[in-house]
Amino acid sequence: MKKFDEYMKLPYKMEIIPDTDEGGFVVSFPELPGCLSMGETMDEAIANAMDAKKEWLHANLEEGNEIPLPDSINNYSGQFKLRIPKSLHKSLADHSKAEGISMNQYCLYLLTKNDALYS
User: Fold this and answer.
1) DSSP 70
2) Which among 26, 46, 88, 109 is least buried, having the fewest CB atoms inside 10 angstroms?
3) 60: enclosing H helix or E strand
4) What PANTHER family does the record tag this protein with (predicted)?
């Protein structure tokens, strides 16, 4: 188990969301369940969130609870297997052939193009 200072240095993702009902901002650490805070200004909300993170870590370490580590791109291989209908496979193969690229490149293009719509 890591020590408190080691956990504080880890790059936990911080989400800052405007509170449209009450005003101010809500800040959470999605990888640390239940660790959230708020503040009237963004600076205040971030400062409060850092205090909440410290208290969350102290309390969970004291209780002997497992502290999740931050998600990392190193946790992903860049590969996954996908089963698709034969008709879609044929369509993708036809389109990639028409573009003069491999089906893998064509599928990567489609995934990247569509993923950008949600980023």
Assistant:
1) P
2) 88
3) helix 42-63
4) ANTITOXIN HICB, UPF0150 PROTEIN SSL0259
Q: Which domain holds residue 112?
A: 77-116
- Helix (H/G/I), strand (E/B), else coil: 82: coil
What does the block give as tokens for 86?
Answer: 């034969």
Structure tokens that stand for 75 in this block = 């946790």
Domain match, 17 and 54 both: yes
Round to whole Å and give the CA distance between 118 and 6: 34
Domain match, 27 and 50 both: yes
> What does the pLDDT look like over 82-97, one tens digit per residue?
899 999 999 999 999 9
Written as one letter, the residue type at 75 is N
Q: Which two tokens stand for residue 96?
A: 């990639």
- Say how far apart CA 26 and CA 36 lie, in whole Å: 7
In angstroms, the CA 46 to CA 14 distance is 9
Cα–Cα distance between 32 and 45 in angstroms, integer? 17
